[in-house]
Amino acid sequence: xxxxxxxLMVTSHARLGFTKEATGVDLVQFAICHAVLEAxxxxxxxxxxxxxMPPIDPLYNIDGTDRQLAASRDALLGLLASSKRIxxxxxxxxxxxxxxxxxxxxxxxxxxxxxxxxxxxxxxxDKYICAFGHASGTLIHVxxxxxxPILTGKKVTGCTNSEELAGNxxxxxxxxxxxxxxxxxxxxxxxxxxxPHVVVDGWLITGQNTASVRSAIDALVxxxxx
Length: 226
Fold this sequence. Notes:
About 30% of the residues lie in helices and about 15% in strands. By secondary structure, the chain is α/β, with parallel strands linked by helices. Helix 1 packs parallel to helix 7. The longest helix is centred in the first third of the chain and has 13 residues, at about 25-40. It is globular.
């Protein structure tokens, strides 16, 4: 049984920009994260901006087509319902933080002062930050002690412009993840749309999309065990 403790951050944002379309947590990504961590015996604490039950993006919900994920849906919703407020989290209690994807993260986890401060503290304490898909965008305001972006010179990945175009939501989001990661001085790499792609550079572990989540969490577990 592992003694590692990992913080799993999720969005509290429920609306896709100025549209009437709902967004929120990508429950499929959350389910994959939790399944891999649970199999490794890693203790997981969920947190969000508002605490409590976050919104679930209806496009990334879990239905009966994946029986394994569907069987765990009630337990996953219970974990989300008990999420702690990010402002109440002490980063010293955890070995790593995972930022779960979903469009909502672009609005709150990216710029909320408590979220950014928490990620700052993890990075400055030499602890791993793992993010994937749209959640890679939450790294753009995280800085080193000299206030320079932690992304400068780092190899990373996240939701690509090509994948954003294919997703038909690009006009509603506040920024392009790929463009902002590049603007912050990172070395952005990518695979074809929908293909798994994970990049590890120092304390940053990033994945391109949902297909990359399992490999990203595996990379985090391997890094913790080294």
